[in-house]
Design brief:
Elements: H1 5-13, E1 18-19, H2 22-27, H3 34-41, E2 51-53, H4 58-71, E3 75-78, E4 95-98, E5 105-109, E6 114-118, H5 123-131, E7 135-136, H6 149-155, H7 162-165, H8 168-171, E8 172-178, E9 184-187, H9 200-203, E10 212-219, E11 221-222, E12 226-234, H10 237-249, E13 256-260, H11 262-268, E14 278-286, H12 288-305, E15 308-309, H13 313-321, H14 328-332, E16 337-346, H15 347-361, E17 367-374, E18 377-378, E19 381-390, H16 398-415, H17 435-453
Parallel strand pairs: 2-4, 3-4
Antiparallel strand pairs: 1-2, 5-6, 6-10, 7-11, 8-9, 8-10, 12-14, 12-15, 13-14, 13-17, 16-19, 17-19, 18-19
Helix pairs in contact: 1-4, 10-12, 15-16
Length: 475
């Protein structure tokens, strides 16, 4: 049945929706996972999909789902493929559903502060459209220029201004999705409801396994009246963590609070960092009077905690360059494999996790870098964003070293009571560690939801959900 499916889909949807040419197929083989790029470099990359379907309407999505279900062919949903955990990987017997052409703005409501978009809408384009009306989405992932609003929902994303604005689950108002039986569900219709379990949370973080997200309505904000900055040197990690805890638990919510260990401070803030000290930067935003009060309170707390002042150009320089990062290939071509891993934990556990992870990473042969910064802060704890770089003498060991670094980060985090994933999702990279967060009962509950909504495993096989015992994981 799969051999004739591309022809059948083209006949039904049009040649301008269904693609079979080699260039398009090659470009859609995987997402931005570094291991996928390493595999390409070493000649064992993901194969081409059966075909690429680029729907422009929800009806196109429904038709594709129905045709694939009837043909017994699985679908790999993809947005702009900026994910870094292997959530998108093509297969020669699967259709790659590229949602990037489903990119309309459905409406911007300045009175109720709602912005409705097709799922494939590029994040920065959505933000610019609402900014033209004096509004903001307030969601600023580093990938905003290369990620879609549907992708934000599917991966349960966080943005750089999350401490005040919340994460994507705090910003989403409505999610529209096509289910495996071809029906369409719309979850969320009011600021809040107590109409049973919130079905939006089945789709938030589902990574294309439970439904294909086709539309998202986001709760907007008015653009801030004022913005100001604070920056400090931090004598040690614990002092900085305690400063952040006290600040947010006192009721202040600077949208950006980022603390860098001494290694990352030297690398990212060389003009401002002191030897063997970290750096903490903050952005304050909101009504002018509140911003002024928050800056004053922040500075007073910093002095009590023994933090040293830093020129606020450290913050504005970061704002100017925060989304500029080199491509993986810039490192892989030098036989260096790098990645970042984001975790989270409560205040009383986060320091031990940092110590354990850094110590473990430094045991990896030929490690070049093991460092971290915090970037998302909560009253109950914060996240850490670990970075590692390894250059094996034998290039054939790059994959092994990469997976070893990830194993060490995940296991040390779990051993000390933290969550193994904060905002990049699970994909294939963390799939087999998911029980560390959900427990065996939680993983089985997730499998039960999958069986109920997608009994034939039509959507994104092999992603997010670990295989049951005795059943090998789908690639």
């Amino acid at each position: 049945m799969s051999a004739s499916l591309p022809t059948d889909l083209a006949r039904q949807l049009g040649d301008d929706v269904v693609y079979n040419d080699a260039e398009v197929l090659d470009a859609h083989r995987h997402d931005y996972w570094v291991l996928a790029h390493l595999d390409d470099l070493e000649g064992r990359g993901a194969p081409r999909p059966l075909c690429v379907v680029r729907p422009r309407t929800v009806d196109h999505v429904v038709a594709c789902v129905n045709a694939c279900r009837n043909a017994g062919v699985a679908i790999v949903p993809a947005g702009l493929r900026s994910g870094v955990c292997g959530g998108v990987e093509a297969h020669p017997e699967r259709v790659l559903l590229d949602l990037s052409s489903l990119d309309r703005t459905r409406g911007i409501d300045s009175h109720n502060l709602l912005g409705a978009f097709d799922a494939g809408k590029r994040g920065i384009d959505a933000e610019r459209e609402v900014e033209a009306r004096g509004l903001t989405i307030g969601h600023w992932p580093q990938s905003i220029a290369v990620s879609s609003v549907g992708g934000w929902v599917a991966t349960r994303a966080s943005g750089q201004f999350s401490t005040a604005n919340g994460n994507i689950e705090d910003i989403v108002h409505t999610i529209e999705a096509v289910l495996a039986d071809g029906s369409t569900i719309t979850a969320g219709k009011a600021p809040r409801a107590a109409a049973g379990p919130d079905l939006r949370h089945l789709l938030l973080g589902s990574e294309g396994t439970l439904g294909i997200i086709t539309g998202v309505t986001l709760a907007l904000r008015r653009k801030a009246e004022a913005q100001d900055y604070s920056a400090y040197t931090v004598p040690n990690l614990t002092t900085g963590f305690e400063f952040q805890r006290e600040l947010v638990q006192s009721g202040w919510t600077p949208p950006v609070m980022r603390q860098y260990d001494a290694v990352e401070a030297q690398r990212s803030f060389a003009a401002h960092a002191k030897p063997d000290a970290g750096i903490l930067i903050l952005v304050h935003e909101g009504p002018a009077t509140r911003v002024a009060a928050e800056v004053t309170a922040t500075d007073a707390l910093a002095r009590r905690c023994g933090l040293g002042g830093v020129d606020t150009r450290a913050v504005t320089d970061w704002l100017d360059h925060r989304n500029t990062v080199p491509h993986w290939r810039a490192f892989l071509d030098k036989r260096i494999v790098v990645d970042t891993a984001e975790i989270s934990a409560s205040w009383d556990r986060i320091g031990a996790i940092y110590d354990a992870v850094i110590a473990s990473l430094n045991e990896v042969p030929e490690i070049l870098n093991a460092s971290a910064h915090s970037s998302h802060v909560y009253r109950t704890g914060l996240n850490l964003y670990f970075s590692f770089a390894v250059r094996p003498r034998d290039a054939a060991e790059m994959r092994v070293r990469y997976l070893d670094c990830w194993r060490r980060i995940v296991m040390a985090t779990a051993d000390h009571g933290g969550s193994i994933a904060h905002h990049h999702g699970i994909g294939r990279l963390r799939r087999d560690y998911l029980e560390l967060d959900l427990g065996a009962t939680g993983v089985e509950a997730l499998r039960a939801v999958k069986r109920a909504l997608d009994p034939n495993d039509l959507f994104n096989p092999g992603v997010l959900i670990p295989a049951a015992a005795g059943h090998p994981a789908d690639a």
